[in-house]
């Protein structure tokens, strides 16, 4: 297995069929691969749409949360069962174009074992002026405080090594700080531009004020984690030496 694609979704029934069809085409040259959808407590028919999409696609796996737990929890559930050494994280609304999976995978593989993350950075944002302004301000503050050298951590497109993800502290909202957390563990981060698209259907689950204060608290917490980091020793098995 070369690549596991993890897609957490909540109430995205109208976006399943189109995105799965695009993934089928984009991932064919990357075989062997798998796509793991994590249904995070949807109530709109997402489960039925996923069952229909699975027909004739043995590479498409579906996990279901018994209640809504959030995007970070969906990512963790998907990576926990992933079989490839590299996991691609994507949003399920169609804004992340699967055509960029190949260049992101090439970037992380070319970097070798010391590169833990390939982070997408959106160009041609389709979120509207208010959200784009919010994102620029948040990213500017984050870069100044965490010094993670990443223009757009809010981009859902990330490719992370599964073993590196296992070293990261877990918390709700973890995905927004993944470049800083990966660097904290001593691994490199590479960046690639990805073209942003409008949603296929539906509306965003997130607003300006419902995550503003939580984001500030998370930022303070990640800053604390980085400050408290100590040298991680390299372990060698010397049994019988």
Radius of gyration, rounded?
18 Å
Shape: globular
Order of helices and strands: EHEHEHEHEHEHHEH
Distance between the termini: 35 Å
How many β-strand stretches?
7
**Mean residue pLDDT:** 88
> Which sheet architecture does the biggest sheet show?
7 strands, mixed
Strand content: 15-25%
- Uncertain residue segments: none
Q: Strand sequence of the main sheet, in spatial order?
A: 3-2-1-4-6-5-7
Look at the helices and sheets and give the structural class: alpha/beta
Measured as a percent range, the helix fraction is: 25-40%
The number of helices is 8
What do you see in this structure?
By secondary structure, this protein is an alpha/beta fold. Helix content is 38%, strand content 19%. It has a 7-stranded mixed β-sheet, with helices on both faces. It is globular. The relative contact order is 0.16. The mean pLDDT is 88.
Q: What descriptive keywords fit this protein?
A:
single chain, 241 residues, alpha/beta
Summarize the structure.
38% of the residues lie in helices and 19% in strands. By secondary structure, the chain is α/β, with parallel strands linked by helices. The radius of gyration is 18 Å and the shape is globular.
Layout of secondary structure:
Elements: E1 3-9, H1 16-27, E2 33-40, H2 46-54, E3 60-65, H3 71-81, E4 86-89, H4 101-110, E5 115-123, H5 129-146, E6 158-161, H6 162-165, H7 178-184, E7 188-195, H8 209-228
